[in-house]
Request: fold
Amino acid sequence: MKTSEEILEVVVKAADDKIAEEMVALDVRGLTGISDFFVIMQGRNEKHVQAIVDAVDEAAHKNQIVVKSIEGKDTGTWTLLDLNDVIVHVFYPSERVHYNLEKLWSDAPLYDISAWVNQ
Reply:
């Protein structure tokens, strides 16, 4: 069974391979009981959002990570992947601004993912 940090690494690398934009990881341990990390990112358009979601889903399965659910995949504007300890939010840019999860969860510190992304 993978740790939440190992799941986070799989997610970040898969999303980065599809050139996800403005990716951040929030460490929500101690703030909520539903997960350890929220990963928030965006795609340039609906097809890009779908490609990121598909890549994360595929990488999770390849690494024996349970994908509990995928919500919003049909809309292409905000898709949520529930990987138990890691919740992944992939937004269309305007939806990200509208929901502003970073502000909503502003008590959560950023988790350093720089080692897993191509700069």
